[in-house]
Amino acid sequence: MHLAPLAADLPDPGLAAFGQDPWWVILLKAVLIFLVLVLLTLFNIWFERRVVARMQHRVGPNVHGPFGLLQSLADGVKLALKEDIIPKSADKVVFLLAPIIATVPAFITWAVIPFGPVVNFFGHETPLQLTDMPVAVLFMLAIASIGIYGIVLGGWSSGSTYSLLGGLRSSAQMISYEVAMGLALVAVFLYAGSMSTSEIVAAQDRLWFGLILLPSFVIYMISMVGETNRAPFDLPEAEGELVGGFHTEYSSLKFALFFLAEYINLATVSAIATTLFLGGWAAPWGIENVWEGANSGYWPLLWFFGKLFCFIFLFVWLRGSLPRMRYDQFMALGWKILIPVSLAWIVAVATIRVISLEGNINRTYLVAAIAVLLVLTVVLMFVGDKGEKSGAATGEGAPAEADEPHDAYAGGFPVPPMPAGGAVRGGAAPLTFAQSRTTVTAAAEENHE
C-alpha cells in the first residue's frame, strides 16, 4: 500500500506552493482567519482588563462566564443595542464609511501572515497561510496605511472640533511612525534577501533577526505602539484634552467597529513582529533538538500564538505602567531619534552585508566601529536637544524688539484681558490671574444685581 509522505518530509516549495489551492480551501482558510481574529479580539479585551486590574490591585471581570471570559461578548452586545446617533453637522456618507475603512484593512493584512508549514488540510497539502507574494511585507504596510484613513476621515466627518483634532493627530502620527517602521524593516530585507513573509521565516532557521538586528527590532516595537494609537502614544483619542478624539461622536456599532479595528491592529503588528523578528511559527531554540516534530504539522500554531501573546502582554504592560506623552515629545521621538537612528543603522547593516559577502575586512572590528558611531550619534542627538531646551529656557537667541515694551509676564502664563474691562495688549500689560478673577467676580455681581 502506498503511503502519502508526511508534511515534514515534503521539500519547501517556496512561493510556488501558493495559488495552487482549490477554491474551497481558500474560502475555508479565509473564514477560519476571520473567526480566529474575532475570537482573539474578545480574548484580548478580557486579557487586558484582567492584567491591568491585577496591576492596579483590582479583581477585573469575573462574573460573566468562567473567570469572566464572556465579559467581552456582553460588552459587544451592549454596544450593538445602544442608540445610534449621527450628528447633524456630520458628513453622513463619510461618517458611516470611516469605521468600515478602519476595520476591513485590519482583516486583510492577515492574508499574508504565515501560521505554519505545509500541512494536510482536509486531505489537501497546503501551507498554513492564505497567500504570499514577493512583496508581501510592502503589501502589509500599504494596507495598514489605508486603515489610518478611517480614523482621519472619521474625525473630519464628525463635524466636531475635538474629533477633527484627533484625526489631524492621527495623520501626523501615521506619517511620523510609519517612516520609522518602514526603515526598521529595510534591514530585515537586506538579511533575508526577500520581502516574502514565508521566505523571511525560512531565513531565520538558524538565528532570529530580533537578535541579529536588535536596533531594528527595538525601533519597530516603539513604532508599532505609535502606529496602533496605544498608550503611551494614544494621542488621537486623548480623553484629557480631546474628550475621546476621533471617535467622540460615534456610538453603537460604528464605535464598536473602531474598537474592533484597534484590537485587530494590536494583534496584526504583533504578528508582523513575530514573523519578521522572532522566527514566525518556528519553535524556540532547544525544543527542536529535543522534539523532532516541533516544527511539523499543526504544532507551529502553538509557537506562533505564544510569541504573539508575548507582544500583546507587552502592549498591556505599557498601558498599565506609562502615562501618556506630551504631543511635542511624541513627535520629537519619531523625527529626531527614531528616523535618524534607523537611517544610520541601515547604512551600517548594508556595509556589513557587503563586506560579509566579499570578505575583505575583519567583521569584528567593523561591527565595533559601527557600534561606536551609533552611540556617538545618539549622544550627539541628546546633547543637541538639551542645548536647544536650555537656550529656549534662558531666552538666548530670541531677538529683542525695541518698539515693544517689556512684558513682565512674557515668560509665564498670563491670563488674556477680559472683554468687560481689560485693555488691549497693545495699550497695557495683560491682566494677571488675580486681576482677571476680580474682574469676573465684579461682572458676575453686576449681572446678579
TrEMBL record:
Spans through the membrane: 23-47, 93-113, 133-154, 175-195, 207-226, 255-278, 298-318, 330-352, 364-383
Membrane topology: Multi-pass membrane protein
Broad class of the protein's primary localization: membrane
Annotated keywords: Cell membrane, Membrane, NAD, Oxidoreductase, Quinone, Translocase, Transmembrane, Transmembrane helix, Ubiquinone
Residue ranges, annotated region (Disordered): 390-415
Locations listed in the record: Cell membrane; Membrane
Record field: compositional bias (Low complexity): 391-400
Catalytic activity line of the entry: a quinone + NADH + 5 H(+)(in) = a quinol + NAD(+) + 4 H(+)(out)
GO molecular function ontology, one term from the record: NADH dehydrogenase (quinone) (non-electrogenic) activity
Origin superkingdom: Bacteria
EC number(s) from the headed UniProt entry: 7.1.1.-
Keyword Translocase included in the entry's annotation: yes
Record function comment: NDH-1 shuttles electrons from NADH, via FMN and iron-sulfur (Fe-S) centers, to quinones in the respiratory chain. The immediate electron acceptor for the enzyme in this species is believed to be ubiquinone. Couples the redox reaction to proton translocation (for every two electrons transferred, four hydrogen ions are translocated across the cytoplasmic membrane), and thus conserves the redox energy in a proton gradient. This subunit may bind ubiquinone.
Protein family membership: Belongs to the complex I subunit 1 family.
Protein name in UniProt: NADH-quinone oxidoreductase subunit H
Organism the protein comes from: Nocardioides pini
